[in-house]
Design goal:
By secondary structure, this protein is mainly α. It is built from twelve helices and two strands. It has helices at 16-31, 43-53, 58-71, 75-80, 83-90, 97-113, 121-125, 132-143, 152-162, 171-187, 198-212, 231-234; strands at 270-271, 284-285. The structure holds iron/sulfur cluster. Iron/sulfur cluster (SF4) is lined by residues 157, 160-161, 213-214, 219, 221, 224, 226-227, 230, 232-233, 238.
């Protein structure tokens, strides 16, 4: 009995993932952008890029990543840096919890592992600020392990190729998408092409395809390496995937701010420490 909203021909054990893998790898070898974090297998450098890329575009991240790696080139240097310094290096990227968690994780790695980045998926996942996607990305890209990495781009690509019409936010559908991503990355190990990099390149090919070709609007299906296997394209239903449902209505929020000024016109302000766990860490606040 097929599950509602899921292409009935879809089975994560069927031959489709196997046939997609060589096409994706060949396309990636020809079309991958030359990004500095792709020239290394240092898990620290890859971790920094993955955290910076959350909610942020590649072109914005590039100068930040370059500067960060110049100034804090090792896990130990991040662990020892002052919170103010790392905050300064992050300034402009937003979502500061990310960088505070990175420093917490770096300190855990230094204290418990002598500064060596963990290689086991579960150990990576246990680090502060590291979720299933980031752990999968690090383990596959840095260590070539068959760990899936399912982000928004990959979800879009997979729902279109396999015709997954239920919302990827639903638990069952999300689990299915992880299975598909796992099946693809595992199948990459069967290829003789680049066995040292197969899992790394396969995951990155899905991310890159989602970023460059299978874009949210007007994907370039004519130049897509997997169009002949793509259910959405073959049925001319590309716009239907992924099914993200209706956006929640925006809630209006009100904020009040004030400046304390004495009779001489001097205002009173001080720096809230960057290490503050509150949302206004490192903001100027009145005394
Ligand atoms: Fe995306 Fe089009 Fe390629 Fe299908 S054929 S994966 S919709 S770009």
């Amino acid at each position: 009995m097929p599950r509602a909203g899921i292409n009935p021909k879809l089975d994560t054990r069927n031959s489709k993932p196997k046939r997609l893998v060589p096409l994706l790898l060949a396309w990636f070898s020809q079309n991958a952008r030359d990004l500095p974090w792709r020239r290394t297998r240092d898990p620290y450098a890859i971790w920094v890029s993955e955290i910076m890329l959350q909610q942020t575009q590649v072109k914005t991240v590039l100068p930040y990543w370059n500067r960060w790696m110049r100034e804090l080139p090792t896990i130990r240097s991040l662990a020892n840096a002052s919170p103010e310094r790392i905050h300064k290096l992050w300034e402009g990227l937003g979502y500061y919890t990310r960088v505070r968690n990175m420093q917490r994780a770096a300190r855990v790695i230094v204290e418990k592992r002598g500064g060596r980045f963990p290689e086991k998926f579960d150990d990576v996942l246990a680090l502060p600020g590291v979720g299933r996607y980031t752990a999968g990305a690090i383990c596959s890209i840095a260590f070539n392990q068959p760990a899936a990495a399912l982000d928004g781009n990959v979800i879009r690509v997979l729902t279109r190729i396999f015709g997954v019409s239920n919302s990827p936010r639903e638990k069952q559908t999300n689990a299915l998408l992880w299975q598909l991503a796992e099946s693809l990355v595992s199948n990459s190990q069967l290829t003789t092409r680049n066995p040292k990099y197969c899992c790394s390149y396969l995951n990155q090919s899905l991310m890159e395809l989602g970023a460059l070709v299978c874009t949210p609007r007007r994907p370039d299906c004519r130049s897509c390496p997997v169009s002949r296997f793509c259910l959405a394209f073959r049925q001319d239903r590309v716009e239907e995937f992924p099914n993200l449902g209706k956006r929640a209505a925006p809630t209006s929020r009100r904020f009040a701010a004030f400046i304390v000024e004495n009779k001489a016109g001097c205002s009173f302000a001080n720096d809230r420490p960057a290490s503050s766990t509150r949302i206004f860490g490192n903001f100027l606040t009145s005394n």
